[in-house]
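Structure ticket #2291
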Amino acid sequence: MTGDNKSTQREHLWVLDNMTTAALLFDVRKRLRFMNTASEILFSLSSRAATGMQARDLIQCPDNEVDTVLDRALATGQPFTEREMMLPAPGGRSITVDCTVVPLEEDGFDGILVEIQQVDRQLRISREEHFVSQYHASRALLRGMAHEIKNPLGGLRGAAQLLERELPDEELREYTRIIIEEADRLQTLIDRMLGPNRPPNKRQVNLHQLLERVRSLVEAEVGGGIELIRDYDPSIPLLHADPDQLIQAFLNIARNAAQALDSRGRILLRTRIHRQYTIGNRRHRLAARIDIEDNGPGIPEEMRESLFFPMVTGRPEGTGLGLSIAQSLIHQHGGLIECNSEPGATVFSIVIPLEMSDHD
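Resolution: structure written out below.
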């Protein structure tokens, strides 16, 4: 192989390594020669450990489907795309992918380029973009409503105070005090609906110390009927965040989980780090994901689309503000909360970008 060919190969590999989709190079015997960073993330396997593996051992599709796909590419010499393949993923889950196969015979390398694009990832990004726009629209509507309510409410309270001074009878003044107290209660409710009214006071914080604080608070509230389990990723660096706001957001979600369990069950606090993670339409180099999972009965399907809206609750005694406030607090940190729920497994996933600390 000439020096020019080696240089060209290095350039091609550099391009592949910077792709956001998983790219893998196999030789004609279907052994892995190269995988990019996105592939390492997809398979939760380092390039060093995977190099030399057979394709069917790395991409474990049912009925050795990957062998069939690669053999077809080698036999025809033509690129093609196999759409909506089911691919086992780490953690016992499955993902849906489009698999593009390109036979290669150039620059001294004979083999196959496989590009794997996660279809459900695109659906997630679209869902997040929709949610973010919906969130901003609902916040604007709430601010407008709050302005329209606060003005007459202030006038009502002021008039009741003036009337109280003029009334000679103590029993009659009791009625004006009720008016004033109820006006104050409505004012407090509106302020809570609007969420946090101060910008985050950010500093370097340890995410796991915050979660331990939340764990101890929930344990003190629920007693011994609920088991709280930790599954922390020690590689997560310090966050540049407001610790009080994050504790409040995590606590709101954990308390909801405890209430759903009705004093019996399990809550899991899990952290992981993600690379090249997209939130809405913005891609982040690093992000921390915090999962708060319970094994309760799940969230009714009709409530899942409106979970984070104010005043939405499944409990008669609930205010419906906890999740709305949590979403507002996490949004101020550039992050987002998602929820996936089925009976026996409800997971609230909080994703917070890590590199924002370089710019805040």
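Closing remark: Residues 123-194 form one domain.
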